[in-house]
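I am still getting used to C-alpha cells and would like to learn alongside you. Would you supply a protein for us yourself, any chain you care to pick? Start from the sequence, derive the C-alpha cells from it, and show both lines together. Go ahead whenever you are ready, and we will take it from there.
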Amino acid sequence: MTAERPAVLSPVAPATTPAERRRTTAEIWIVLGLSLGQSGVYALVNIVARLTAETPLADQSATLNASQSDRSLLDLTYQLLGVFFALVPVALALYLLSGRAGATWRGTRRRIGLDWGLDGARPGRDVAWGFGLAAAIGIPGLAFYLLGRALGITVSVQASALNEHWWTVPVLVVAALQNGLLEEVVAVAYLHERTRDLGWSRLWFIVWSSLLRGSYHLYQGIGPFFGNVVMGIVFSWFYTSRWGRQRVVPLVVAHTLLDVVAFVGYALLPQEWKDALGL
C-alpha cells in the first residue's frame, strides 16, 4: 500500500491555561474511570488474587461472553444490554471531544477517522489495513498465548461460554465489534487527542496507551498483559504514523476481526481440538 500524508485536520484549541489542563486531566480520568481504566483496576486486583491463590495460575481459567440466563430470550436481552452500556463511554468520549473550542461532532468523527459515510472516507482502504493489522497481530498473538500457557503465566481463556442458540454467533460478532469500538476509540483515538491537548509527545502517548491496554487484560495472566502491551504499541504507533493517518477505523476493523475469530472460532471448535491446543 502506498503511504500518504496525514489528512489536513481542522484546528482545535489545545488546553493552554493551568485551569484548562486540570480540566482536561480530570476529564481523562473520568472517562477512563467509567470504562477501560476501571477494568484495568479490577484486572489488577484479579491478578493479585490469582497469584496469591493456592491453585497455580496455569490451572486457573477466565471465561468471556458467559450466558446470563438459562432462558434464551432473557439471555439475549442481557447480552445486548451489556453491549449497549459498554458503548456509552465511546459516545461520551466523542461528545466531550466535540465540545472543544473549534470542534464539531462531524469534524471530531473525521478528525479521529471514525467517519464512514462522510465525504472523503475510504472504507476499502480502512478494511484492507484492518485485515493487515489483524494478520500481523493475530498469528503471533496465538503463539504468545500458547507460549504463556506452556510457561504457566497465562490462564486458560474460554473465549465463549454462551449456550447454543440461534442468536449465539450474531451476538458474539456484535460483542467483538463492541470491544473494537470501545478499546480503539477510547484507548487510542480519544487518549491521543486529549494527551496532545496536554502537550504530550507521541512517545508518551504510545507508552501510556499500550500500558492501559495491557492493564485491563491482566485478569488473563501475565502473558496476555505483555502480549496486549505489544498490540497497543503496534496499534498506537500505526494510528499516529503516516500510514495510519490518525484513522481509528482500521484499528476497529482489526480488533473486531481478531475477536470474531477468537469468540466464534472458540464456540465452533470441537472440544478435542480445544484440549489439544490447551484452550
In short: The longest helix spans residues 168-197. The CA atoms of residues 159 and 279 lie 9 Å apart. The longest strand covers residues 61-63. Residues 1-8 have pLDDT under 50 and may be disordered.
